[in-house]
Amino acid sequence: MPGYAYFIVAAGWLFWFLPFPLTGWTRSAPQTRDARARWGVLLQVIAYVLLGLGRFWELRPAAWRVGLSVIFLGLAILLSWTSTRALGKHLRFDAALSAGHELVQSGAYGFLRHPIYSSMLCLLLGTGFMACPAIRFVPAILIFLVGTEIRMRIEDKLLADGFGDQFCQYRNKVSAYVPFVR
């Protein structure tokens, strides 16, 4: 893989990750938590690991793959920063609600219910287009989507239980993590 490809992917991951520690993840005990969402996290991690298996350093990505990689990594970074900023003190690793939790509908949450998952999908796509053959890239995408669906459904149930009709109205008008797909 050419040096510029390593730089693009590494910079994408770095700038995608930065807003999480800068925003300050909530570490206080949640009022409501569903640890089953961690199974979804495990599948998402497996999907990312699949991208790095094999001899990716021998790949020479075509120009169209580099272009798609840059676009998806850019979207991942944009969604990561705007999502963490909108969530603020409500940012958590786990699927959980805290006392005083608010239903965030501003920023990226105005058009996606789970924009951080969207950013993670864009990160996967950006990395995969640059550094992964289709034989592993396609299964990685499918595994990632299964993990994301698990997490999304658990979080949606927590939010529906916590916010009732307010969340149901929000869910009916805003896509989950892929625009125009509910």
Number of helices in the DSSP assignment: 7
Main pleated-sheet profile: 2 strands, antiparallel
Structural category = mainly alpha
Strand % is under 5%
What is the tally of beta strands?
2
Average residue-wise pLDDT? 88
- Tell me, briefly, the overall form: elongated
Uncertain ranges: none
- The count of domains is 1
Order of helices and strands: HHEHHEHHH
Q: Widest sheet: strand order?
A: 1-2
Q: How helical, in percent, are the residues? A: 55-70%
Radius of gyration: 17 Å
Query: N- to C-terminal separation?
Result: 37 Å
Describe it:
The protein is mostly helical and 182 residues long. It has one domain. It contains seven helices and two strands, in the order ααβααβααα. It has helices at residues 3-17, 19-23, 37-52, 63-87, 115-131, 134-163, 165-173; strands at 32-33, 96-97. It has a two-stranded antiparallel sheet. The mean pLDDT is 88.
